Amino acid sequence: MGGGFVEETTWNEKNKVSFSMEKKFNLDRSPHEAGHENPFLSSQASINLLGQPSRNSEFAYPLNERFSEIEQLDPRLLESLGKMGLDRMSHIQKHATGILMQDETNDQLEVTGKYDMMAAAQTGSGKTLAFLLPIANRLLNNYPASSMQALVSYIRRSVKAFESLESIAGAKEKGPKKQYPLALVLAPTRELVQQINNELMRLTVYSMLRSVAVFGGEKPSWQMQQLSRGAHMLVATPGRLLDFLEQDLISLRFCRNLVLDEADQMLEFGFEPQLKKIFEPRLYHLPSSEDGRQTSLFSATFPTKVALLARHLLRGDRCVSLSIAYHNPDGSKPNSMVLVPEWGANPNRNQDESETLLARIPAEIQQHIKLLPQEARNQYKISAKWLDILCETISEVKETATEEPCRILVFCNRKKEADIIDTQLYQRRYSSRSIHGDRSQQQRDQALREFKNGHVEVLVATSVAARGLDIPNVTAVINIGCPNNLDDYVHRIGRTGRLGKKGQAVTILDLTNDIPASVKGVCDFVKAKNPDAEIDREIIDFARSRSSSANEYGRNWRNQKERFSRD
């Protein structure tokens, strides 16, 4: 394959994968393992469907328990799933694949997704595969007969883009400078983009489908080289994607599969201007929703901006809102759930979103709050006593850990704190690394890789690592100081307690740099999940000392000085 152009007969063939490549993608697990090691899969859940299609008496979709039961699932995808150790489907996978895999043929005889989706699902529930599998299956089943021919026809018509028809053959050798992806997944951070693309590469390794990750933090030349080899699916951060679009390296003309993951964070991080440009058909030719583009939007919360974005991108008469909340370990229903609003509904600006976030905290996470003694508090630096308390907490976690290796995530609110704590832990003979926005992409990748492999037991990070990263078997999350908003708190502690496994979340407060409303929000969450939890009286008094509305809590993030990566 060269430049993304694949002959029709070749597209349906199985890609030959070496044993070393299978090992690289960890494709050596038995399908029978997954059901036993993931009790999360057997959990009961409350499902809520909203939207115009759900009110139609003819609306129905298959609910399969296993991937092998999905009709017309490409055998190459099924083989990948089996070698990833995946057999049974989680609730989000059952419902999302059932809805998103329903296809139809448009006036141009192109096969497109029939329904759009807005969804919220608990962290670690398998949502990435839930939106990747329907797209990959659609492209593999229909791409040779429609999209590839449309791409070739477009190249032949575009005399200005290619000086002669021979350039099509030349593209098989060197690859055209411009690529025409058929699917686009947008995510807010470079780490999440890499994670999604790695999952996609594992899923499609036995096919000719090629995916490319586009993100900032590294020189664009390497990504340009990867693009030149072909990009049937693109996973990108908005900033770098817009750079490549403006350089005319990418055209979205044939992109009829669109996913927005962590949509609330893309807006919170300031990506709205870039998104508006990307979605403007007159600029970069992204097919509109009326032209049969299927759009899926996944978000932890659904504030006003997300609801308005959904109204702009999704097809109202074909949009299904899917909410899933997993039951407690004792089988009881959750006290609350993230209710995804119906498309076009007017957002309630005064609605207390803390209930929505509370529902996203897995019952398996044990939350604790610690208070530094008065003599250890310092507004301007991390004192030695601070580090003593942190080390004591790490030791407590390691003593109670039931699995090896023990992985502990330590979150800070500032990059400087992360570096100081990492250095001090290293001096105290802890195996630690730190990641934040000032680290190079290579440094961040290496730190995450060592942490995942168990070579590093403590990873110190700012919120750059909190969003959507799939780090398996994190034993505990420790917050140094109170996060500046409830949303960050929920996503931070959501790194542990995944797939039905127990996890711990410890927040250490000194009350000198903490915001009362922020502290109150965390205290409310701890008490809501465990009414018997003990919280120091000084913390409670501090939380009540000023205005501590939970609604105000979510807006305190704007006071942060740390910049998130926007590319």
Automatic annotation (TrEMBL):
Any Pfam family: DEAD
**Entry keyword set:** ATP-binding, Helicase, Hydrolase, Nucleotide-binding
Does the keyword field hold Nucleotide-binding?
yes
Q: Does the keyword Hydrolase apply?
A: yes
* InterPro entries the record matches: DEAD/DEAH_box_helicase_dom, Helicase_ATP-bd, Helicase_C-like, P-loop_NTPase
| Molecular function as annotated in GO | ATP binding; hydrolase activity; RNA helicase activity
EC no.?
A: 3.6.4.13
Annotated ranges, domain Helicase ATP-binding:
108-320
Q: What class of enzyme is it?
A: hydrolase
Domain Helicase C-terminal as annotated: residue spans: 393-543
Instruction: Give the PANTHER family listed for this entry.
Output: ATP-DEPENDENT RNA HELICASE DBP3
What name is this protein filed under?
A: RNA helicase
Lineage runs: Eukaryota, Metazoa, Spiralia, Lophotrochozoa, Platyhelminthes
